[in-house]
Amino acid sequence: MTRRFGLPPSPAEFEALAHAAFARIPQPFAQHLDGITVHIEEFADEETLRALEIDDPFGLTGLYHGRSMDTDSVWISGEFPPRITLYRQPLLAEWCETEVQLEDLVAHVVIHEVGHHFGLSDEAMHALEDEVR
């Protein structure tokens, strides 16, 4: 989105951007994304920020919740399905402070969090992001 004026994108618009980013993730990764849900919150809660040792709520734009595939097992049950939470206000602030388009910013965060689902290193996440572009 290249809007510079008017109302900021709604949570529903953020969710649509996140789903569009998911749709661009290539195989063989895409086949392993079923069941991951996307949630939009304004900011991370105090408990999450404290656990991650983040003082500024604008310092967290997204978070993967769940067990990575490299540690998953058929013997594990009773856990919630994996999910990605995008934090709308920090993303809006970053969008306003940079020249990055909102679609690209959301895709970057989604791909980074998907990388955690696969247990990927930061280098592998950057390679996946480059492939999606």
TrEMBL record:
Q: Which domain of life is it from?
A: Bacteria
Question: Per its UniProt record, what InterPro entries does this chain match?
Answer: Zincin_1, Zincin_1_sf
Q: Which protein are we looking at?
A: Neutral zinc metallopeptidase
